[in-house]
Specification:
GO terms for molecular function: 4 iron, 4 sulfur cluster binding; aconitate hydratase activity; metal ion binding. Keywords: Iron, Iron-sulfur, Metal-binding. It holds the Pfam family Aconitase. The longest helix is centred in the middle third of the chain and has 12 residues, at 180-191. This protein has 3 domains: 8-148, Aconitase, domain 3; 151-271, Aconitase, Domain 2 (3-Layer(aba) Sandwich), CATH 3.40.1060; 273-408, Aconitase, domain 3 (2-Layer Sandwich), CATH 3.30.499.10. The chain is an alpha/beta fold. Helix 11 packs across helix 13 (344-351) and helix 11 (305-314) runs parallel beside helix 15 (397-406). It has helices at 2-7, 33-42, 64-71, 97-104, 134-143, 168-177, 180-191, 209-216, 219-222, 233-241, 305-314, 333-342, 344-351, 360-363, 397-406, and strands at 20-23, 26-29, 52-56, 89-90, 111-114, 128-131, 145-148, 152-159, 195-200, 226-228, 261-266, 273-275, 281-283, 294-298, 325-329, 354-355, 376-378, 393-395, 434-435, 461-464, 484-487. Strand 12 and strand 13 form a beta hairpin.
Length: 488
């Protein structure tokens, strides 16, 4: 399927050569939006020609240092000039970029370029999202095209049905436990090409778009360039509920489409799992009884609207233990509104939850870090980080609900009776926090910061390389194949 998307946009539909030029449908700016815009302006761009380009301002909790960054023109800031270049701004408070883009902008059978690996979740709707450098993003904004390497595919064949108290978060952890990162690394080394995960099989079509997005979120964890699901009736229903039916396009693999390897998983055999602080995926029962100090429900990945509603139902009439801190970070403003309208938000607050803003630093643990000496349980995927940074346990929303109810880690199947969750079809879809260009509206004349000048190397230079999160085999996957990289 990724080859199918690229072939329909490439100057050479056969995708021959190490690099091919392709038309870009969307550009998603999340981590360094001002730098990408500066690169585009330097080429003479007046208006971006891409179908959709969005800049996300992920700093909700402002402090003295973040305000100073904005005043100094930090590349991470979002200036008011973006809409004048046909690039809307998703303002602080709208939610985390990945779930918001899935709800309001992502479209199946399209190609998106981004600077944020966590946007891999949009593959759940059938959109191919690839991470590129700020300079490539600038070129894509200015010209509407980019040069990319044709990828290779690994198929994830899904069969069976999940059992009660097992959800997509557990299935994603099961894939990590099966050392999918080693498969990706081997194929990437053999073919010198990026690897994309393709989900297929009879059970793939049974999953909701939200569950598909959770599974696609493992792509950066295993070193894959992206992950992709088909676009079918489930996708069409999702877009209809979002009032974006016109964005739907069918996307299915061609019969006999090649893939380098097939990894099969029976959903009926998956148990409630967690990834411990060392990065080892294991059954929840292995840590049963261990006290929990912090629970963070929500974030930008690993949880769906259905999971949030289920956790609220499981915690109804419960109270937070005295030594546990429950934080709820709704993935998007839409999810927050649904929680409020359904009464689930009231139940969570009555339990003792604190509602936190969807600041990008929540998922990186820069704010609300794990308490020292205490166990922190979270639903969101870990952020690649420097080795030695505070770590936490990743688990499903139901497992987190059990920890809140009892104060310790335990198997959510101990709740005995599964809850029945009805996800509303009428969803709030107003875009009040999306700032678009309006004719005649006065905007700031402050220009985005220029692209940083290249600094020549003088002699040997040793660079620290960010380490990825250890996978199911307990070994860290280190960027650039090592912890240190020496410049020539």
């Amino acid at each position: 399927m990724p080859q199918k998307i690229l072939a329909g946009r490439a100057t050479d539909p056969q995708l021959r050569g190490d690099l091919v030029q392709v038309k870009v449908d969307q550009v998603i700016l999340s981590r360094a939006p001002s730098r990408a815009l500066a690169e585009a302006i330097a080429t003479g761009m007046k208006k971006t020609p891409v179908e959709v380009a969005v800049a996300y301002d992920g700093t909700c909790v402002a402090d003295a240092s973040s305000l100073a960054d904005i005043d100094e023109g930090s590349p991470h800031s979002v200036s008011p000039e973006f809409p004048t270049y046909n690039i809307p701004i998703a303002r602080p408070g709208i939610g985390f970029p990945a779930p918001v883009h899935l709800e309001r902008f992502a479209a199946p059978a399209r190609l998106a370029l981004t600077d944020d690996p966590r946007l891999a979740t949009v593959g759940g709707i059938g959109m191919l999202s690839l991470v590129v450098s700020p300079s490539q993003l600038g070129q894509a904004l200015a010209t509407g095209s980019a040069w990319l390497r044709p990828p290779r595919s690994v198929q994830i064949h899904l069969s069976g049905r999940v059992r009660p108290f097992v959800c997509a978060r557990d299935v994603a952890l099961e894939l990590l436990r099966r050392n999918l990162d080693e498969v990706v690394r081997r194929i990437e080394g053999e073919h010198h090409a990026p690897v994309i995960l393709e989900f297929a099989g009879p059970s793939a079509r049974l999953l909701s778009v939200g569950d598909r997005a959770v599974l696609c979120g493992i792509a950066p964890q295993v070193g894959a360039a992206a992950a992709l699901f088909v676009s079918d009736e489930k996708t069409e229903v999702f877009l209809r509920d979002q009032r974006r039916s016109k964005a739907h396009r069918a996307l299915v693999p061609d019969p006999g489409a090649p893939c380098e390897e097939v990894v099969s998983i029976d959903l009926g055999t998956v148990d409630p799992l967690l990834m411990d602080e060392e990065g080892v995926v294991r059954p929840v029962r292995d840590l049963a009884g261990k006290p929990v100090a912090q629970v963070v429900l929500g974030g930008d990945s690993g949880v769906t609207l259905r999971d949030m509603l289920a956790a609220a139902l499981l915690l109804k009439s419960k109270r937070v233990p005295s030594r546990l801190d429950l934080l709820v970070a709704p993935p998007s403003r839409q999810v927050l509104e649904v929680l409020a309208q359904s009464g689930a938000l009231v139940d969570l607050v009555a339990t003792g939850a604190r509602i936190v803003e969807p600041d990008r630093r929540v998922v990186t643990s820069e704010i609300y870090p794990p308490p020292p000496g205490g166990l922190s349980l979270r639903t969101a995927d870990p952020e690649p980080r420097i080795a030695g940074a505070p770590s936490f346990v990743v688990a499903s929303a139901e497992t987190l609900a059990y920890a809140v109810a009892t104060g310790s880690v335990g198997d959510p199947r101990s709740f005995k009776r599964p809850v029945r969750v009805t996800v509303p079809r009428a969803l709030p879809t107003d875009d009040v926090l999306i700032l678009r260009d309006k004719k005649g509206e006065q905007v700031s004349t402050k220009k985005p910061p220029p692209a940083p000048a290249a600094v020549p190397w003088k002699g040997p230079l040793t660079l620290d390389v960010l380490a990825g999160v250890p996978k199911g085999n307990g070994r860290a996957a280190v960027g650039a194949r090592g912890r240190k990289a020496a410049a020539p």
